Amino acid sequence: MTTTARHDDTGLEPGTIRHFDHLGFATREQLFFRQPEPIDDTWPAQRLAIALGATLYVPATRPDLADVIRKRRAEGVISMVIDLEDAIADHEEDDAIEHTVAALRDIAEKPGDPMLLFVRPRSADRIPRIAAALDTPSAPNTPPALAGFVIPKFNSANADEALGEVARASELLGRHLWVMPVLESAAVVHRETRDDELTALTAHLSEHRANVLAVRIGATDICGYFGIRRDRDLTIYDVRVAADVIAGIVNHLGRSDESGFIVTGPVWEYFADHERMFQPTLRHTPFRESDAVYFRQQLVSRDMDGLLREITLDRANGLHGKTVIHPAHVAAVHALSAVTHEEYHDALDILAGDAGGVRASSYRNKMNELKPHRNWALRVIDRAAAFGVTRQGVSFVDLLTALADPGPAGRRTATQ
């Protein structure tokens, strides 16, 4: 996978990944004070993990899998997971693996805009089969789209096997492959075993730190242990037993020191429902200020209100990015991932000195404490690199509006 190339102010050269690159240059200029940077595979893992943004899952059984991946990339999706686990029935697994390998080969032979593409096998023991199928005389080189593997049901009992299989696949295919474990086992969920399990998982992941991109949370399975399925009017943080699990995972694995990893937001599992309208809980003010009341009504009619609340709460609880299962959700995650003009300047103020103390925000509406807020500021700079910094007065509503319907003038052209 090539993730860097020279670029100029008019657009990107082939082989470059950048968020919002499907929007036209004029649109991006209107929206951004600082443009998103091209995603570079030499970035530190934490910045690259933040750059994943909305990671879209697609069932491996899709017969047009390669075309679907290309279509989603053209719509602004940067990271995808080909799902060989929960999205397919037991009897479909063999065909799904064949579809996966065929799609990766197709993308290798006819590369377009690159992306970060992962495979989620049913279990780690399937990885050798997938790697061997990709390492064939007809396709001797690793498909450039393959960034790594997502490991479901990751726990201390299978950690060594899973991490070892990915390392062996990397060696076989001659390229670095990332691991993204999904934490959703009973040992993590149940309070009496949680701390011991997370302590053990921290040790396993730390030993393989160079290969671990991010830690993902399996919220659906977590809720399943209690016979719970959250309603679309609720966020995962309203389900207290699930929120407790997330807090434990962040406490052990999401620390901002050298022991921590980026932890990603859990899946939002509801699709749009055009017939269902419910009372929104988002504040009306920013939409009125942006003259986007109609657009807001459209968001609510598509059940976006709960998703927007959950994305905001994800970041408030130390999570970055999100697992999504519908392409309509990608724009919401990315719009709320962009750094605001105010956040960016607060971060710069905080990072300007390392002697501590307190400074008034340049926006004159808060106090910035240089030492306690430093780790927050570093994360903001990582987000700014990946998602850019919006112009003063530009809100996430403006980004959502542009992403929802860029119009002919707002789309990237062949020369951009």
UniProtKB/TrEMBL annotation:
Cofactor(s) annotated in UniProt: Mg(2+)
Domain of life where this protein originates: Bacteria
Keywords, in A-Z order: Lyase, Magnesium, Metal-binding
Keyword Flavoprotein applies: no
InterPro entries: C-C_Bond_Lyase-like, Pyrv/PenolPyrv_kinase-like_dom, Pyrv_kinase-like_dom_sf
The keyword Transmembrane is annotated on this UniProt entry: no
Matching Pfam families: C-C_Bond_Lyase (PF15617)
A GO term, aspect molecular function: lyase activity
PANTHER family for this protein: CITRATE LYASE SUBUNIT BETA, LYASE BETA SUBUNIT, PUTATIVE (AFU_ORTHOLOGUE AFUA_4G13030)-RELATED
Name listed for the protein in its UniProt record: HpcH/HpaI aldolase/citrate lyase family protein
Annotated organism of origin: Gordonia amicalis
